[in-house]
User: Fold this.
Amino acid sequence: MFRSRSWFGASWGRPRNPHSLERLKYLHNILSKNTTVSESNRGTLVESLRCIAEILIWGDQNDSSVFDFFLEKNMLSYFLKIMRQKCGDYLLSNNHVNSIIVHKFDVSDEEVMAYYISFLKTLSLKLNNHTIHFFYNEHTKDFPLYTEAIKFFNHPESMVRIAVRTLTLNVYRVQDASMLRFIRDRTAAPYFSNLVWFIGKHILELDACVRNDADHQSQQKLDDLVAEHLDHLHYINDILCLNIPDLNDVLTEHLLHKLLIPLYIYSLTSESARRPVTSSPYNRDNIQSIEVITRNLEAIIKGKCSDTPPRLTYPIQRMESEEETKPSVSCVVALFLLSQVFLIITHGPIVHALAWIIIQSDLSVFEDGATRILEMYLSKAKTNIKLEFSKPQLSLEKALETSGQERDYTTPEYSGSKDFAYDLDKDTDLSSCDLDPELVSTSLPSTSHISETSSIAHDSTEDLVTQIHSVKPTAVTAVAQNMPDSPLPDSGIDSSSSKTLSELNNITDEEKQKLLGTMPSTSAEKTMTIESILEKENREIVKRPFLKTVLDSLDCSENDYRALFALCLLFALINNKGVNTELLDTLLCPEVDDTTSKVTNTDSANTSNQDEVCGDGNSQQGTPARTTKRPMQSFNALLINKLMAIANLSCKPTSKVRLVTCELSVRLVRVAMQGASGVAGARHVAAVDALRARAAALARNFYKCDDIFLDMFEDEYCEMSKRPLNVEWLCMDAAILLPPTRTPMSGIAFTKRLPSGEMERARRAIRTFFLIRDLYLKLTGKPETQLPLANPSPFVQVGEVLDLNDSDLISCDIIQKDGTWHHRFLAVDNIQIILVEPDKQKMGWGVAKLVGSLQDLEIQGDKDDPRCLQLTIHKPRVGSSGALARTVLLRAKFKFDDHIRSMAAKQRLTKGRTKARQKKMQQIGRLLEVSGISAPSMAQRHRPLFTRPGLSAVRRSSGADSDETERRLRRPSGHVLKDGIVVYRERTTSRESSVSRSSSTHGSRDGSPRARSEDIPLEDIRRNMAIAATPVTVTQSQPSTSTQVPKAVSMSSEETSFISGEAPRHKRKGIVETI
Amino acid sequence: MAYAYLFKYIIIGDTGVGKSCLLLQFTDKRFQPVHDLTIGVEFGARMITIDGKQIKLQIWDTAGQEAFRSITRSYYRGAAGALLVYDITRRDTFNHLTTWLEDARQHSNSNMVIMLIGNKSDLESRREVKKEEGEAFAREHGLVFMETSAKTAANVEEAFINTAKEIYEKIQEGVFDINNEANGIKIGPQHSTGGGTSGAGGAGTGGAAGGGCC
Assistant:
């Protein structure tokens, strides 16, 4: 291109190698001679810049001198100069990369935006402890790569948003202390507050979508909204998992205070607590229109009510004002979202705090102390982070713009907060603590702080919200980290202000006293009946509004819409690694009298304090001195009661409980019943046994001697063992957010909707039975012995060598649709159809080429040719390894020598199929306790296929070279082998024998184990050996034999010699002798 | 530049299978043999024409971001098409396809068009994966299959364009909700959203359903 142009320096020959230092020097020369962009040199310059980039990349891997030269000549300055000319923008900086980053590109052009953000993302991928200094200027506190990028965190284009998230994660993981401090001090609050705000807005949209879509019209939109929420949670979790303490503290605080508690948790309480009087299931959330929500949002955005602390009024007033001002989501959505939170996020301070609030917080949150709290507010006039879902008062961009200026880097809302180290100047006593790690260890809380906290400690009616709110300096962080039994490393640190802790637990001294007073009666209670325990728990639960909502949601009498989410939440809660197990004992352990040890632990943890600031001597780790015993209030019995109610409902024919709900509740029942000990009590086992009987009765309704029942039964078992419920996946499915539906046309999976029609009701009944039976077995520790339905004998494996002497074999040609053709012998066992070809080494033995179960066989006559049968053999379903969609093993036309043989084969197969299925039905009958079916009885009536009396198993030989002598020795004596002719003897009592010529004389059909003469004439095996020997390829092409190819080949060669030796005998084919 | 639709693509597959090279060849018609592990080429766009309509393809390279679950998740979901690439000279890259596909299927929207690409078809002498194997895999999993060479440009255009055609057909059938940008499809600025297209899409769906019933 520029080769033809002479003006750029003839003295510089163009180096041939496109990747070399010489070439770079040459290009540098071009740049230096073309500092001004014009029409004439535009093309040259573009190509030169491109080549330079290429050489740099090459040099990065191959020649470090390239980059040195690049730096030495400050070539980036050329880039910038050229860029400025093009864009007409003038920027001054000696930091060229950063200049490019902060260059005001036209980001409204989607392509420019895409290239720009990709460029930033690419740079971030290259960040490490060394390169970070090219981008982050420690002295000027300047980090444009990061600050510019996060401005686009909410860009409408999803790929841009993803790129921003990638970039932020790449930045955080560099772990450069100075850079991270910058991130935390200058950007964390604005970025995270905005992030959290948009997540919340998004959730309101999701909620509106759920409310307005009773007819499943916008499933796709809902899908996207749910997926987006999951993206957010995963992103947050990815940040938290980088384990950067400072960052995590800020993020945790914002999440809890701005989103999870005000929006998720409070939405949970909408009906039971906010409106204790009207406990109508139709709470205002169901009635509240999207307009109200929008209005609420607007109000907040306008800041109309943002100055009013949200929970300062008495309940009734508050209710009204809330309707105007507080956004919330429906209880269903809240349960669903919280489940997702617990499924994804494992960061202790977040999940433990949330779990604690859900399980432990009591009514005082709503009812008491409001006045005092108001007073507190007024007296302190503090501007703590409010516990509400509200919009950051400055846009992120604004906040970042001003971040260089003193104290303006946070939103006003945060500026007075004592939560940040950089905010030292401010706000009186409350600012005495900060998060700076260096300071934390040395600074002490101010005395005013302590006195304030201690005064609060005596307020037994402290509002939880305000508690968290008012929790000091370290505020939020302290809250999170000092939750009882918090898994945080610093949770053990004692503090002088143990009160924060007890605030959180709502255990005040007063309460403690009360509890102590009630101790004796509590221990007496252990001997109480289950009814009285339940009654007590029911009484107690009223005091725990959030937990009550969750447990109340388990009520399925109307439908299981909400119950499913409550189950998901409980499941997620119980399985979250970040939630301390002792907290879960409230749900999972029955109240015990010897609570001493456990309670002591809990209590000491509760009282152990949290103020990390107090590193002084009087802090005692874990405060062992305070071993006040507090009997744990357990709700284990209540939980089990509710879960069992769901399971019981599932066993009703008209139940409105979906399978997925049943499965989840059954799982939780097990956990709840096993408690900490892992062993269920006798009472529980008895209850589950009764449940099992009910489930069996339900399934029994559908038990018919109908072909389809067996198939459904095995199918469902297969499906269930193959796809055990995955709750995480379940909670990714937006479809469950819509009210339960019945129709399969909704596209919703069977387990997630109600059964439609008799067939699906049968399937549901079967599955319910499996689930509950499994629960029973697991609780009792019994092994499963009856499922999957066992076959009386194991299947022969393809390739096995079988002793077929004296077996019934029918010679046939198998013709497949594609025209492939094989010759085989058909053998029929009790349960299986086996196609064999003669073993070339052992007379009378055969190699199984295809094995199918009789049960899964379809038999059809051929209209055109009476000698033919159309057979379809399906793959057997065996437990979890079975084929789900019925896989066809072989579908082919079987051509027999004549129509008699064809009929014989048909009858034998049909009979075998019926019998195999009957046997399985009997097994099911026993499982379902169908009356009249008792012990297995039919087994003896079936003689084994193979001639060895008393040996049902086919003789197997894995290799051709196995010990033949041994096999011969074990051969049954009854076989007849005369003069090279195999004589077949039929011992079955089955009806098909009547087809044969001679059997017509036999009246007795069964019960006779004695050999009967048999007649289905079968073939001289050797004739067919000869046939088989020729088409070796046939063997190979048969679908099931692919693994046998090498063997088949080798055998065929031997066979050839065998056949040639025995050639004369071929002529004696078809002779049948009857004994 | 004006376009009727914009389709977002992602390219996935093991490292070193030539993802970036495919992108470069398609958007820039160049082949760059000496290439860092994906630096620089992270994004590319090109205009193509289907059915007389200008369609812009935006290709986002996702390499280097596997460390974060949130990121891979989101990428899959934001794309209308995915090129799943393996290297015909390296069997292991073929063996990993199942994992890639599982990931894609789990995270993407169900309508995403996935094209299987066996790259480096110019290196016939070093071939380890037969073309038939690629075809069989594609058939089994319902993918479109093609062997390409980013070096010689063989089939590269076709790979991208055929994928676009399939997406376009799905739009015509009304399978994609084109008003929902989360699908990785965007309607061009001059294209009216309310009228023609969605109407046509609706009619398509109705027609198909009707056929099924009868």
Q: What stands out?
A: The first strand of chain A starts at residue 801 and ends at 803. Chain A touches chain B through 39 residues (CB under 8 Å).
